[in-house]
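Request: Show me your protein:
***
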Amino acid sequence: MRNTWIICLLTVGVGLSTQAQSFLGWQYNDRYFSVNVGSGKVGYSGDLSHGRAFQPGLASASMGVEARLLSRLSARFEARWFNISGSDSRAEDDFSLQRNLSFRSSNIEIELSGMYYFLNAYQGMYYKRKPIDPYVSLGVGLVFHNPKTDLDGTTYALRDFNTEGRNYGGSAFIVPVGLGAKLALNEFVNLIPELSYRLTFSDYLDDVSGTYGGPFDDPIATALSNRKDEVGVIDQAVYDRLVPGAQRGDEASRDSYYMITVKLEVYLPPDLFINKGAKHSKQKLYKKPSAFDKM
C-alpha cells in the first residue's frame, strides 16, 4: 500500500512538473512575446467636450509588449501619451457660453490588459497564424493628468489653484476595454486597428466637476475659477447665478475618453534569429518556410 502511494505521488509530481514546464517553457511551446507601437485619434467625454468627437490630428502615441499565455488568451502591457482638450466656446447653450471655461492636457497612461482571441485558437506556430485574428480586451491602469489653461498669455496648471475648492490628485484609475484585429502583413509583423474606451474613476480630467470655489485670496485663482466676465453678459440670469458655491459642472458622471489606434506589432520569440533544427550552426530564421506558403 505504501509503495502504491509513493508511485501515485511520483506520477502526479511528474505530471505537474511536465505541465509547469509546458506552461512556462516559452520556446518549447513556441509561445511568443511581441512588441508594438501605435498612434491614433483620441476623443474625450466630459463637461467641456460639447459633442466634439475627436481631438484634432493624431493625438496619441503608444508602445507595448504582449505575451501569449494560452491558445486564446494573452497579457499586454502598454504605455501611452495622449492629448485631450475642451472649451465652452464650442457650446450652444447659454450656461456653458457664459461659464466660459477651457482646458488642455497632455497625459500619460499605463495599462495591463487581458486579451481574448475569440475566433482563432493559437496552434503553437506564430509564423503560421491566421491572416486575421480579432480580439477583445479588458484591463486596469492609471492615467496621469494635469489640466492647464491660458490666462492673459500665461499658462497655468489648474489643479494648483483648487478652482472648485477641492484638492484632487494627478492620477486616476482606469478600466480600458477594447476591440481590435491583428492583420498579418508577413511572418513576423501585424497591422492592428483597435477601438478602445476608458472608464475613469475621476471627474477632474478637465478640472470641472462640482461647484465654484471661493472666495479666494489669490486673484489668479479667482480668475481661473470663474471666467464669466471675460465674455460679458450673455444671459443675465445665468451670469447672476455663477457665483462661489453655485453649480460649475456635472459631478453625477465621470469623465471618460476613447481612442481609434493603428499599431504595428513585431513578434519576438526567444529563437528569433536561430533555427530550432540547427544543432551545430546558427541559421537565420528567414530560411524557414514562409508562414504563407500554404495559405
